[in-house]
Design a protein that fits this description.
Layout (H helix, E strand, L loop, with lengths): L16 E5 L10 E7 L2 E8 L7 E5 L2 E11 L2 E12 L4 E2 L1 E5 L5 E5 L1
Parallel strand pairs: 1-7
Antiparallel strand pairs: 1-4, 2-3, 2-5, 5-6, 8-9
């Protein structure tokens, strides 16, 4: 009798959990709205201004992900930047976006 070939173990996809962009109380100037996408999918937006920003929660899975921030402020053309962040034990992240003197934009989600 020929033994049956081994069956490959199936791995369940990572479980979805809730992540958030933390609320801040530091000023954002000028005030406006930040649109947030994770892995190319819009997950929501938050207002920002002199009193900071509120929390934004979104569904997430563990791993390395790409994010894009698009800031819209009155009197300024929409400004976007992207980066990567890792979801593991940490599921709450601080947002940051800086317009540098050379006109480039740097953003973080840490």
């Amino acid at each position: 009798m020929i033994p049956a070939p081994p069956v490959a173990a199936q791995t369940a996809p990572p479980a979805s959990q809730t992540c958030s962009i933390k609320a801040t109380n530091g000023p954002w100037d000028p005030p406006g709205t930040m649109l947030v996408s994770i892995d190319g999918t819009p997950v929501g937006s938050f207002a920002f201004g002199p009193d900071g920003n509120p929390k934004l929660s979104f569904s997430c899975t563990p791993g390395v992900h790409a994010f894009t921030f698009t800031a819209k402020s009155q009197g300024i053309a929409p400004t976007s930047c992207s980066g990567k962040f890792t979801i593991g034990d940490e599921v709450d992240f601080l947002p940051g976006m800086v317009l540098l003197p050379d006109g480039s934009v740097r953003c973080v989600l840490r």
